[in-house]
Amino acid sequence: MSTETARPGALALLVKYNIYLMLAVLIIASAALSEHFLTLQNLYNLLRQLAPLALVSVGMLLVVLTGGIDLSVGSVAAIGGMSVAMAMPALPFDGGFALLICVAGAVAFGAALGAVNGLLVAGFGMASFVATLAMMTMARGLAYMLSNGQPVRFPRELPTAQILTTFGSKGLPGLGTPWPVVAALVIVALFIFLLRRTSWGRLTVATGSNETAVRLAGLPGGRYKFLAYAICGGLSALAGIFVTARTAVGTPVTGVGLELDAIAACVIGGALLSGGKGTVVNTMIGVLILGLIGNIMNLMSVPAYPQQIIKGLIIIFAVLLQGVGARANRRV
Amino acid sequence: MDRLDMRAISKEFGGIAALRGAGFSARAGEVHALMGENGAGKSTLMKILAGAYDHQGGEIRIDGAPVAIHSPQDAIGKGISVIYQEFSLARHLSVAENILIKQLGRRVLVDRKAMRARAAELLAGMGFADIDPDQVVGGLPVAYQQVVEICKALSRDCSILVLDEPTAVLTTHEAEKLFTLVRKLRERGVCIIYISHRLDEIFALCDRVTVLKDGATVGTWDTAALDHDRLTSLMIGRDLSDFFPPRQAEIGPVALEVRGLSAPQVHDVSFTVRKGEVLGIGGLVGSGRTEALRALFGADPRSAGEVLLHGRAIRIRNPGDAVRAGIGLLPEDRKQQGVLLNLPILTNAMLTAVNANLGPLGLLRPRAERAAAQALREELQLKAASLEAEVGTLSGGNQQKVALMKWLVSGSDVLLLDEPTRGVDVGAKVEIYRVINELAAKGAAVVVVSSEMIELIGLCDRVLVMRAGRVAGELLGPGLTEERIIELAMGRAHVH
């Protein structure tokens, strides 16, 4: 009578490693479809463009791990990119130290905006969707107000700006790996380590899994939620700075829709939107998958509108595959 | 002819057999008990009947005809209703909407008046006319939520009703009402499959008993032909006298003293617990037992009261204060409050220790954590594939052991255990009793809230009975009897 039999073989493996498989398939397909794909130039360009999304996705993952969502990341990124562009010429001194101050200030501003999200969610019990939706609107409005809606240009010959644009356009001597990619890798590695090896990481995940149980173990669950939003804000601002470094201009339209790509990266990477489950490594694979989809279609000259449809279909496909494993033995 | 006949049912999960040719048959107008330890296969068998799982071998017959049940809709269509321990109620909808939820889905427009009347009629028919059909279900006590769940089944004219541990959340009084209802349903010819870990209920209510062990049927007996000891030994192959092994705990000085504790639903509660002592707290559900523990632990605000630990007054403003002072709480709702279901055993066990015992640079020490968790796993005889196993995959008893682990790790010497054996099978119960005894023997002061008489009497040195938020009395020694507990809990001299 039975229609299903337990088959722990091929299907289970496919489900377990589906995102790695999907990444491999995309890489092979890209290489087969376009001879330009496997050139170092193309790969470096792709990764350079993905660096901001990688940073934002790490921040988003932290929030998602606590069971929340942050819609304000794109707007905060815009503010981060613009603040640096505006602050550099305004500082009375030039050079690397000036840049450091600009970047630190912009990241702190982003973290402060994220902290407001965190306060509303963890302190006042507001739904994260609502709190960060409000912040998304407000921060975007602020970004437009900062420059009356105009892009903020800065003098290229300014020594501070030169360091920033060199960071954005050049790479490691010899290898040529773009600096933003190197920086993103370092930050990603840092968060992989922090989540695995510190009590902060452990308890952030635990809070997302069951906040009540964490509080009844005598631990301040709300604090971990708050921190997740603040860190996410800081990382978003840094992502905006990366964009400014690459394009040499701070624009208020930076990061429109970025929150959706970041959420998609987390979800493709297997993170549970209800919290308590997800890893940085898999989220980065999600980022790569999203980036490859765009890249392959650009190389094949697929117009922009169909691209969005295909991207959506691939997200659905990835999440459906993950669901197969969970549903194999459960129907209710 | 048998109403329900399940024959030679087999089911595997990932290569591990949960059922190997289990089966039984039950008649119309019969209350048929399904017994066995957790893991024996009762729940799997019932989930197959409910269409939640497919089976790999065997067949199901209803009134002699083979039927195919591949989905919950199939099962409901054949008159089968299963009431699980975890209810499937829409918490934000009203009682009436929940009971008649199927009709809700079928109509475009909702006739609220008619729905309310129909729901009120069903509730009154069960003897629960005091439940307001307009009340939102999430606001009802758990006991009443169950009544709503049963009414939901009745509204679908079910002819086979499975009750999975229905009394686990009920007070003695409420359970009596449920029994009356079950008997009424039996007279109407409903075939009732009754799962419970409480032997008293089986003998009071059930006509026949089928015992499962390790995924296979041991046999079916008339209840009248069995007694407690025989039934228990059929289930676990062990004697009842092993249930409450004698404790060699030396009772020492007072460890915890609570004076005049008041909080919502708790009025002027005072008590003491000594080192090495197990203090029981009995009383009806809603008598303020859980609320008193939570207020004491700092999980809920309190309006008055003093807490003295080892003779010194301490301030507990939140659970963090309580934990630092050495107090641990095992909450009543294990899955919602006690454990992190989708995380590994290791994370759960080390929850309270995560900020202590950090290595250089404030990093976690995986190897030390693993060793500590492994030691606890052996001490508590936790049955799990590995320390990486998600807690949600464990049985109720093993989940409770995991919830306890964090208090053993933190070295808490005052333990507040709220219904520590709820929804736990016989074998695991005995093990939890053993752990409690050992903790007391090591000098811990233990407070156990329980709705099970036999637990209060067998496990505790002293029992406090609460009624309507106050301490109604204290029982110990020869005065600690089931009758006295019920008298104090109900506030009258004679019950039954």
UniProtKB/TrEMBL annotation, chain A:
Its main location: membrane. The chain crosses the membrane at residues 17-38, 50-77, 97-120, 127-146, 177-195, 226-249, 280-297, 309-328. It is a multi-pass membrane protein. One of its GO terms (cellular component) is plasma membrane. It is found in: Cell membrane. The keyword Cell membrane applies. It holds the Pfam family BPD_transp_2. This is Ribose transport system permease protein. One of its GO terms (molecular function) is transmembrane transporter activity. The lineage of its organism: Bacteria, Pseudomonadati, Pseudomonadota, Alphaproteobacteria, Rhodobacterales. InterPro entries: ABC_transp_permease. Keywords: Cell inner membrane, Cell membrane, Membrane, Transmembrane, Transmembrane helix, Transport. The keyword Cell membrane applies.
From TrEMBL, chain B:
The keyword Repeat applies. GO terms for molecular function: ATP binding; ATP hydrolysis activity. Its main location: membrane. The keyword Aminoacyl-tRNA synthetase does not apply. Keywords: ATP-binding, Cell membrane, Membrane, Nucleotide-binding, Repeat, Sugar transport, Translocase, Transport. InterPro entries: AAA+_ATPase, ABC_carbohydrate_import_ATPase, ABC_transporter-like_ATP-bd, P-loop_NTPase. It is found in: Cell membrane. Residues 4-239, 251-493 form the ABC transporter domain. Pfam families: ABC_tran (PF00005). It is a peripheral membrane protein. It comes from the Bacteria. One of its GO terms (cellular component) is plasma membrane. This is Ribose transport system ATP-binding protein.
